[in-house]
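Q: Structure tokens for this one, please.
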Amino acid sequence: MIDLRRRSLLKGGLFGAGALAAPAAAIGVARGFTHGVASGEPRATSVLLWTRYVPATGAAAPLRFEVAEDPGFGRIVSRGEAVAEAGNDYCAKPTATGLTPGRWYYYRFTGPEGAQSIAGRTRTLPEGGIRSFRIAAFSCANKPFGWFNAYAHAAARNDLDLVVHLGDYIYEYPRGDYPSERDALAGRPIAPSTEIVHLADYRARYASYRDDPDLQRLHQLYPSLNIWDDHEITNDAWKGGAQNHQPETEGDWEARKTAAKKAFREWLPMSDADYDSYEVGDLLTLVRLETRLVGRDAQPDLAGAIARATDLQSALESFRDGPLADPKRSMMGAKQEAWVGDQLTRSVRGNKRWQLVAQQVLMGGLTTARDASADWLGENPSERTRSRFTTGLAAAKAGIPFNPDAWGGYPAARARLLSQAQNAGANFVTIAGDSHNAWAFDLTNDGKPAGVEFGTNSVTSPGFEWSLRGVAPTRLAQSLVSSNPELKWCDTSHRGYMALTFTPDEVRCDWQLLDTIRERSATCATKTARVAHGARRMG
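A: Here is the predicted structure, written as tokens:
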């Protein structure tokens, strides 16, 4: 199932170098085309284009776009207009139509008085018989923790068809919180300095992230699909609130949620659909879920159940069999649940080889390792880390999942989704982010194979190596695998991303495991897992 390939360093085109690169002087400029270009929401004959243009006067600015078959723009195939205006933070998102399926295009914007953006490259989705399609998946990019080397590595490789960002594209915390001032890397500033709560705050945070040249370069070269998780809003968000939202000091939850969603849709090449599906020829259907704000019920309160307990074992069992198992609780809401089932069934009946579900949080069964001990925390752990570890250890002994914010906290909803996949006869693959670590799960439901899950490591946010400093990562991984039947492999100490290659006969997942994010380097190792068509488990 898993193999380790030689270490490699991609050299060409790294860190924004190359023929299409943005001039360094353009990054962070307050007027004109401020943050490069991007594309997203690809279809067979259309693609959404993005740029940001701030006029000198502050008034709305008319823009024109061109899409060409060649980088010299000698063969223009689509033209159109857009407006950059203050109501959308001067972001413009026109859709180019009339394109040919499955081919690369080049695009650019022209502003007032002939000002011109850098050129971008994009690709439409293919139709018909497809032999291969490659997707890069990212998650959890906390800018002050380190360099976006994962973005640089992916931008340099030139063998991708699509980028999917699974959430936590930005983080909401104030400077000095996560990471602390001591742990923050110099030269990685974020704005504003405070926690982001209002629309202007969210806009400023996106602007400070999108100043990064490696992120700009990735957007410039590949079309993307983008999914918000919690940190685009605030930590552990659900439809009615969040762990990191205090109404008494931060105001109305609905207002904050609305502001966060608006800024996300302004700054990313993203449609206004909360969830959607995309067809890649006869090869696969990609289903993009929303598991945060549309229908998610509140996370079950394990810590509260333990704090109120007079008999710990009885309290854990009551929690497991009561709030945790409640069949009414949902991650997506009834409407989206029904829609997902329809998408899976339609895809199988349409003879698509694979059904790929892209979403935010891990679905695989995961509890704290059975042999975990307090010395895994290392010296002087924080009280929060110690409390979470102790709670997780007690929960594991009662068969309660490690993270109630993931699908493990919603077992009935997970079972419904996996039953839909099984009933449809889907070759079900799901990809997830959120956890900061890399995972490979064989998913089961009712004792039968249901599909596989590949969880991506983070771009920069720290994994278990950050909090469990007293145990070697290889030892931790072995303990987790031995304690969790669905888990086949994990890496708990490297940042990076996943590249998934779909062919009619198999899906291959390559985890790119970076050496470092504390300096600019793309040296990495590659771990690989495969699943054969029809197997519904890794082989």
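A few notes: DSSP finds twelve helices and 24 strands in the chain. Residues 1-29 have pLDDT under 50 and may be disordered.
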